[in-house]
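LAB NOTEBOOK - FOLDING QUEUE
OPERATOR: T.R.
BATCH SIZE: 2
PURPOSE: Compare the predicted structure-token outputs for two unrelated chains run back to back under identical settings.
PRIORITY: normal
REVIEWER: second-year student, initials M.K.

ITEM 1
FIELD SEQUENCE / FIELD STRUCTURE:
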Amino acid sequence: MSRHTDLTHTHAQTSRYLSPWPLRARLRRLAWVITWNCLFRTSPKPLYAWRRLLLRLFGCQIEGRPYVSPHTRITMPWNLRLGDKTTLAERCEIYNLAPISLGPRVTVAQEAYLCAGTHDFEHPYTPLITAPIMVGEDVFIAARAFVLPGVTIHRGAIVGACAVVTKDVLERAIVAGNPARVIGERRWNFTDQLDHNGHT
């Protein structure tokens, strides 16, 4: 059971066809979509500082110098926290309808999907349900992995390619499959000092 279960929120909807978000939130999202299309995804890959600036302008909490690729899709920058030297690769998706926090030196590889929203399919209106995702330091999330709402991935864990993570991942665990299960343990020594480039 995730420690974020108590932070799960079911959004009130009077119809399955109406947005659960107030007008102000929808306008803010529209402004970001225009910015992403015109200024973010069109920027050359080396311009990480430019993309960090755009994210900060829209409320993203940034520590140090994370690396966000131009084709990373971020739904709500104001619901995102990025640690130092964290990398968001090409075409990965941060669907952060609830807060998503990525610690230092996290890698989210190509086309991985962090999904902080789902729906209540037992209700006729299928209302939106959101829950935060927390990712600890030195985690590697491989290509096309899918992380569900409310999940915590603890320090040093590895999520294998195409894995579907439905519950919390313990520190140093290596998980793979659908649903993801533990297949090993990472043995890298986290007490090693990192140099300024993040290498041991």
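ITEM 2
FIELD SEQUENCE / FIELD STRUCTURE:
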Amino acid sequence: MSLPPITVDTLIFVAFFLLNIIVGFRYRGKNQSFREYAIGDKKFSTAVLTATIVATWMSGSALFINLENTYKQGLYYVIPDIIGTPMCLLITGYIVGPRMGKFLNNLSVPESLGKLYGKPVQAIAGISIVLRSTGYVAMQLQVIAKTLTILFNYEGPAVVTIAAIIITLYTLSGGVKAVTFTDVLQFFTFGTLLPILALTIWNKPPKFYTSNTYVPKQPTHVF
């Protein structure tokens, strides 16, 4: 199994992951408690929280799913998505959020449910979240594999495995603080590159070629 050739795309990809490692280890807490590891020290600014929420919301799987369904279904998919997503955020912010104040010192949703409904419910919630998160991470890695195949014309487990190890290392070492600031890096990276890509495509539209092939006319059946 050979690795992809060294190209500009490969160097950009490697540089992006190296920056994530540097930022992740730079902002990891030193001698932090488990509480600080899990939920941080609550000293994040509004700008940082906004950037990390946007970067987290625009996940790789959501991007692929939205693009695919928009292409296949058109406005039948776009209109409910445009209406449903803002409604979901508004309901969370104005209805659910204000009622979560008494749970701010809890480390997780299962802990909150355990205080309300007991240990069995807490255990069920914890197992469910672990299973859901495992599947979600697997989905993200699958998106990385598809992206690498498109960018580098390379299909293999090596680069995906390296990416998974990098993400796991800075997450385990730094906790939520490292994840938050790497999300900020990703927010500015994609917030800069996507408009540049859109402008490039707009200014240099692809050439369209006509085809000489045609569909033969079906014979008319006489009944």
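REVIEWER COMMENT (ITEM 2): The radius of gyration is 23 Å.
FOLLOW-UP: none requested
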